[in-house]
Amino acid sequence: MPRANVGGVNDVGGGPEEWFMSLPIVTRCWFGGTLLTTCAANFNMFSVYKIIWSFESIKDNFEIWRVLTPFMYAGPFSINSLFLMYMVYQFSKQYESGGPYNTGAGGGTADYVFMMMLGILLLLVSFVLLGGTIPLPPIFTQNLVFYVLYIWSKRNPTNAANIWGFQMKAYQLPFAYLAINVLMGNPYWGLIHGMACGHVYYFCVDVVPLVYGKDFLHTPQFLIDYFGIGEYHPQNGGNDGVGVAQGIAAPGRVAPPNDPAARGGGRGGGHNWGGGGNVLGTR
Q1: Are 170 and 152 in contact, with CB atoms under 8 Å apart?
Q2: pTM as predicted
């Protein structure tokens, strides 16, 4: 897996706390949860076996945290776990900030939360259905990262990307990472698992409306009521903590759009994705 310079940490003044609080809400929760869970497990605050996916433990012992914790553990301390935590931060931040697929909330936070909920469900159900036919460990952080990366690459297919100086389009980036892992002898089934689930989401939200004229993935109203239309911004001094996007209409149902990436094209802006400090997203 190619290494990437951790860019963006000093983009916001005021130190690590202000930088962390400046992250979009979903990225902040996922990255913060991954950092805390990974550190706690490595410092033996609890056993890794208490956080991996286990349907039996959920059913018999009501250990419901196992629904989320498999998506927030980056593994034993190593350069690979550090890089995976960086990928959680960078890939999620880029997709969340760049405009998720609009499934009813204007391409905002509610749509991203809905996408992540579907991704978690798809990964868990497919893991159970595969039944050990492929070597997938019951930890899905990398799988979810590549679910997000694959959807981003379909949302912005014409964005320029490069890894180690090799130029490519954004839609080629997940497959480039996959090829690198195969050539380096690293585990790669988690990447395939995440990309396959990402393709299911992309097919349902983009291909089906375009080809068949049917929109059936709609962000639930309760997510729109809470996060609002567009990007979520917590309101200081509010009574219920519910935020609405700045400069965007208050929460409410909007018609699910036909918003295929092929028509939308790529979004501009430079972002440090890929390896060796190379820039992804520049034109």
Answers
A1: yes
A2: 0.80
Tokens 């929109």 correspond to: 215
Q: Cα–Cα distance between 281 and 72 in angstroms, integer?
A: 26
Going from the C-alpha of 102 to that of each of 110, 175, 195, 204, 255, the distances in angstroms are 9, 25, 20, 12, 10
Helices (H) and strands (E) in the chain, counts: 10, 2
| Of residues 75, 31, 37, the one with CA closest to residue 186 | 75
Rounded to whole angstroms, how far apart are CA atoms 34 and 72? 4
Q: How far is CA 214 from CA 49, 205, 253, in A?
A: 43, 9, 17
Query: Per residue in 198-220, pLDDT tens?
Result: 999 999 999 999 999 888 999 99
- Contact predicate 84/93, CB 8 Å: no
Tell the burial category of 72 from Cβ atoms under 10 Å away from its Cβ (0-12, 13-18, 19+): buried
d(CA 52, CA 255): 38
Whole-number CA gyration radius for the chain: 19
Backbone φ and ψ of 258, nearest 5°: -90, 110
